[in-house]
Specification:
The structure is a single chain. By secondary structure, the protein is of the alpha+beta class. It has a domain at 41-95. The chain contains three helices and three strands, in the order ααβββα. The protein has a three-stranded antiparallel beta sheet with strand order 1-2-3. 0% of the residues are buried.
Length: 95
């Protein structure tokens, strides 16, 4: 018996809408017999913003173009805050 046969087969992965992730109900299904809403290509749904901080660190931000919500940012803001505090402590010690 193949132990991997019980795992789901690879396929398309869809994100959970924020309303559903927060415990709400999904939008109602289209009426029977109506045409489904066309799906936009990924490039039209997600925008990528590149920026540089004053210290030269490059940041990449992924934005949902339909809502303007930031999906993710690399490096994450929490990591940047820790790095900034470490650099500030080092500068303070050297001064």
């Amino acid at each position: 018996m193949d132990p991997l046969s019980t795992l789901p087969q690879p396929g398309q992965v869809r994100a959970v809408p924020p309303v559903v992730a927060a415990g709400g109900r999904a939008a109602s299904e289209p009426a029977p017999g109506s045409a489904p809403e066309p799906v936009a290509p990924p490039s039209a749904r997600v925008g990528v913003e590149y920026s540089h901080r004053s210290d030269g660190l490059q940041q990449m931000t992924f934005i949902d173009m339909r809502t303007g919500v930031v999906i993710s940012q690399t490096p994450p803001p929490q990591v940047l805050a820790v790095v900034d505090s470490i650099v500030a402590a080092i500068r303070q010690r050297e001064a």
